[in-house]
Every structure is written in structure tokens, then in C-alpha cells.
Design goal:
The chain is α+β, with helices and mostly antiparallel strands. The protein folds into two domains: 1-53; 56-241, no CATH class. 38% of the residues lie in helices and 31% in strands. It is built from six helices and ten strands, in the order αβββββαββαααβββα. It has helices spanning 2-53, 118-123, 170-177, 179-184, 186-191, 232-250, and strands spanning 55-68, 74-86, 92-94, 98-103, 107-116, 132-140, 149-150, 194-203, 211-217, 222-227. The strands form two sheets. Strands 1, 2, 3, 4, 9 and 10 form a six-stranded antiparallel sheet that branches. A four-stranded antiparallel sheet has the order 7-6-5-8. Strand 9 (211-217) and strand 10 form a beta hairpin.
Length: 255
């Protein structure tokens, strides 16, 4: 009888231990699954936040020279302007450098900005996942906008759409061709997923020896900032200077 009771007690204890182990395994499995789910949700939300708050470099600008008077007032500024487009492989392509002279020292960067509805930006939509900008002209605080330097080509088309840096997608090209109508008819813009279509001009005083970058926010407009660090424009200018120096040094009779 005692042996029987011992066996029963042992079985009860073992059953209890096994049940506890199973419950703990279920608990930790469920807990780990929940943690993984929360981590996936966190990464998804972070991706959305990055898409909404992200921005991309659209152009760079440096001062090539300034003319001042006896009171050290800047009368004229010569700018070097480099615009970027995105190639079919997603890489940034630099367009030819433009030299632009303006009165004074404060350039306006004038263009059109097209902001898509947030849902497309959040989804990372291929065509509507980021704002678009078309640079139009550069002028200064000391001149009328219509007297500024055009950034469009001879046919009135932004260089990013002229096909020289790769064939633009038909959707973006169509938006440019109808941009005036879209500005005047918001309902038509909404049907294309656009939230805002407007002109925008950003400006700031500039000085020699500094790099200025124009960014476009994924879910907003342009930013005109001074920045340190890597620069496509400065690297190109340095390479051109090295090339010129090399040619001069190898020319017979060069000192």
C-alpha cells in the first residue's frame, strides 16, 4: 500500500512538473512571438517615420567670387550651381555646373514643389513616395525675379527632364507639362495623389569658402542650408583644377 501511495505521489509530482514546464514553454513561446511582433511593428513605424521625415540632396552651390566696395558691401556674387538627378539605378547623377552672377550676396532658389499625399509617402510608393521639385531660376534680393538666371534649358524644360541624364519617367514628365493647370485646379491634382502644387523660393546670404546644399524633404518643401562634409561640386572643381595644373605643368616652356 505504501509503495502504491509512493508511486501515486511521484506521478502527481512528475505530472505537476511537466504541466508547469509546458505552461512555461507556452508562456515564453507566446512572449517571444509577441516580442517579435512588436519589433516588426516598431521597424514598420520607423520606416514610415523615415519616409516622412527623410530628405534628399537636390543641388549644391558655392561662391566663385564676390565684388565689394570700399565699405565692404557685396555688390556682386558669382555662384557655381550643380543640380542632381536620380538615375535608373537609384544613384545620384550630377548635371553640368552652371556659373551664375547676381547682384548682392543673397540668392533666391526658385522652383516648383509637388507634395504627394501622406499615404503614398508612408507606403514608399514608387512614383508618389517622395516630393518632387523643379528648379526654375536664381535671382537675388536686389533684383526682380524675372531678371534672374533661368535654370531651365532652351526649351523651357528642367535639365532633370531633358533626357541627357537618362530618360525621365512619363509620370513625372506629364506632371511638369501640366504643372500650371495643376496649380490652378487642386481637384485635378488630388486625383493624381498630389496634396500641394506650388511655387517656392528659399534664400540666404552666401559667402566664399562655404558649401551650400538645397535639400528636398520627402513630405515637404525645399531647404537651403550651409553644410560641411562631402561635396560633389567641390570634388569636381578640385579635379578640374588638378587637370588644368597638370596640363600647364606638362606644356613645353611652362614655368
Amino acid at each position: 500500500m505504501r509503495n502504491f501511495l509512493k508511486r501515486v505521489i511521484v506521478l502527481v509530482v512528475l505530472t505537476t512538473i511537466m504541466a508547469t514546464g509546458i505552461n512555461m514553454a507556452i508562456y515564453f513561446t507566446s512572449r517571444n512571438a509577441r516580442i517579435l511582433q512588436l519589433e516588426r511593428e516598431r521597424k514598420h513605424l520607423q520606416t514610415i517615420i523615415n519616409r516622412l521625415t527623410g530628405k534628399r540632396r537636390m543641388a549644391e552651390l558655392v561662391v566663385d567670387g564676390q565684388v565689394t566696395n570700399g565699405q565692404r558691401q557685396v555688390l556682386q556674387t558669382t555662384l557655381l550651381w550643380e543640380e542632381f538627378v536620380t538615375g535608373s539605378d537609384g544613384r545620384r547623377i550630377a548635371l553640368p555646373i552652371k556659373k551664375i552672377t547676381i547682384p548682392g550676396d543673397t540668392p533666391y532658389i526658385d522652383g516648383y514643389v509637388l507634395k504627394f499625399q501622406d499615404k503614398f509617402v508612408e507606403q514608399g510608393n514608387l512614383l508618389r513616395g517622395k516630393s518632387l521639385a523643379f528648379f526654375r531660376r536664381i535671382f537675388s534680393t536686389k533684383q526682380s525675379p524675372h531678371l534672374g538666371k533661368s535654370l531651365l534649358d532652351a526649351h523651357g524644360v528642367p535639365p532633370c527632364l531633358d533626357g541627357k541624364a537618362g530618360r525621365p519617367d512619363t509620370f513625372t514628365l506629364d506632371l511638369w507639362q501640366h504643372i500650371q493647370q495643376l496649380m490652378q485646379h487642386p481637384a485635378s491634382a488630388k486625383k493624381l495623389g498630389l496634396d500641394i502644387v506650388q511655387g517656392q523660393a528659399v534664400y540666404r546670404p552666401v559667402k566664399p569658402g562655404r558649401l551650400y546644399v538645397i535639400y528636398l524633404q520627402n513630405d515637404g518643401g525645399m531647404e537651403f542650408t550651409q553644410q560641411a562634409g562631402e561635396s560633389s561640386l567641390i570634388n569636381r572643381l578640385l579635379k578640374e583644377a588638378d587637370h588644368t595644373h597638370s596640363q600647364t605643368a606638362t606644356t613645353p616652356g611652362a614655368q
